[in-house]
Amino acid sequence: MPDRPDMAAALAAPPLTNLVRVGGEMFSWTEPVARDNPLLTHLSVELVGPGGTVLVAGPHPDELVTALTTGGAEVTWLLRSLTDAEQAARSHPAVTVLTGALGKADLTAGYDLVVATDGIQRLNSAEGDQLSAAELLDRLARAVRPGGALILMHDNQLGAHHTVRLDPGAGHRDDAAWRPAEAVDGPAARTQLTAALTGSGLEIGTAYAAFPEPSAPTVLIGGETLGDVASPLRPWLRTVLARAYTTAFRGRPVLSDPRRLIDRALRAGAEDTVAGGWLVIAHAPGDRDRPARRPDVLVGDEHGIRTPDAEIRTGQAPREPHGLRRAELVRPAAGYPLEERLLDLCAAADVRRLRQEIAQYESWLAGQSQDGLIDGPAALADLSDLGVTPDGPAVLSARWAPAEPIPTQTALVRALWQFAVRLATWARPHPWPITASAADLAAILTGMAGRSVTEEDLRAAVDLQVTIDAAEFGMTPAERRAHRLALLAVQPGTAPLDVAGYGELAEALWRQRYQASHLLAMMEWTEQIIASRDSQLSRMEWELRFHRSRVTGRALMAAKRAYRMIKSGPR
Q1: What is the DSSP letter of 164?
Q2: What is the C-alpha separation between 293 and 305, in angstroms, rounded?
Q3: Per-residue pLDDT at 251 exceeds 50
Q4: Across-strand partners of 392?
Q5: Who's near 232: CB < 8 A, 6+ residues apart?
Q6: What's the CA gap between 193 and 141, in Å, rounded?
Q7: What is the secondary structure of 59-98 as a DSSP string?
């Protein structure tokens, strides 16, 4: 229960003239709010101009409301928690705050824009009747004026974030703990969601599949690109989505690595089915001008919003932590992902073609360098960030580049060492299963590129990887030291170091047990061979003694000594 001010403080506080109680407000309740999402904020702000009216339905980040008011919009904010509504009214005196259930709010005046990027799950109140999902969607749609717009995020109950969730007791902590058991979560597919909004009189403008989670989407895919397995954006999308899920689920307990599920979905063109949610921008019929057609893919974070055309909208000043600089690169290209090809060749034990691919990569990397030094996105690009096009390797996506050039040898060893780490931690088959560590495997791969590796090269590569991870995830010095030790200790059977799912942990445990049983079997076999050879040597020794004790044996030994004397006589 949140802390409430005492009576004297409550009486002394100035009245909140911008707070309106509509009924059904929840008194002893407060809502967790997601962090500001620049992607959702940007899309919301561009839908309304100065002087427009906006309804923000449900809990949203303060940054979104501030951006709308700064743009000159007249904002009304609906919150079911009385405590949160009072705080919002104090923080945003220019905003009209409604507190209560959506079903009891009078929205007949209509709004130029209705923002519901938090979804519809938190628009009902425990203090009153529960509206169904269809009724909630209809009320939001009817709150849009002619020519206005609705931007809505809807959670996908079949999404990968739910499928891999490992959080015992979550059912007693979520809103579903007090919602009626027969309450539905709403449309279960993007087509059902758009059909519901169309049935309420809206026209669908854009419908995106949102990844990785509806509360914090960083990748939006829609239009013709969604589900198109022949799109040239596919290799790039696999890289972008893998990075998005790595960032979102790093250090979180999950049943299985969500990146594998998303990768399989992209291969099958089924990413819409396992998306975290769906973002729909719908318009009410009217004569107002609408924005130009939006790109099919949007990628955003706190540093800006990018499209496949490499358009960048800077969100914050570029950072240069730990000697690195931001290098937001988006370059879709036709071809195949290099890491995927290497994984397939390792599984097939095709050493000859594996050597060819690695040698081609080394040659390309050497061509990007000058005087043994390399800079730019190519210096820190992982093999998963590279694609092989008809013109050779190319960087498809990159986030960091060194502020100063680094040795080409370090860049090469780091890329191949990281690939070796993934082979080991993902339990992927390869032609060298008896290698003792990822460092040994990296040395083999680097040898395929025609280069030798020293202990200093490996440690420099690991230090560079720690620097990249520290810049990406904001690690403290203590976390950097622990991460470095963990990377140096990677060996067959080690669990993934970023997203350690229960399935991957079980796989690592099985692999360790398999290796232990294999070593025990080898020890037993070795002991049997030694015992067999000892038995044979004992038998031969007995036979030799037996023959020496006979007359014939003594004669043969005398003849042997005479032969040796005759042979050595002339000397």
Answers
A1: T
A2: 16
A3: yes
A4: 389
A5: 332, 333, 334
A6: 12
A7: ---HHHHHHHHHTT-EEEEEESBHHHHHHHHHH-TTSEEE
Which one, of 454, 458, 468, lies nearest residue 488 by Cα? 458
pLDDT over 60 at 315, yes or no: no
Domains of the chain: 15-167+185-312 (3.40.50.150), 336-500 (no CATH), 522-568 (no CATH)
CA atoms within 13 A on the CB side of 376: 11
Q: Is 288 exposed, middle or buried (0-12, 13-18, 19+ CB in 10 A)?
A: middle
Does position 1 have pLDDT exceeding 50, yes or no? no
d(CA 143, CA 148): 9
In the chain, the amino acid numbered 424 is A
Q: Tell me: the pLDDT tens digits for 160-185?
A: 998 888 877 666 666 655 555 445 56
Residue 182: per-residue pLDDT: 46
DSSP result, 331-399: ---SSEEHHHHHHHHHHTT-HHHHHHHHHHHHHHHHHH-BTTEE-SHHHH--GGGEEEETTEEEE-EEE
Return d(Cα 82, Cα 87) in angstroms, integer. 9
Distance CA 541, CA 559 (A): 20
Report the distance separating Cα 417 and Cα 379, nearest Å: 14
Closest CA to 78 of 109, 43, 115: 115
Closest CA to 41 of 283, 264, 305: 305
Ramachandran angles phi, psi of 54, nearest 5°: -130, 135
Residues 337/387, Cβ–Cβ less than 8 Å? yes
Strand, coil or helix: 184: coil
Q: Strand pairing of 96-100 and 19-23? A: parallel
- Rounded Cα distance between 135 and 187, Å, is 12
pLDDT in tens, 142-151: 999 999 999 9
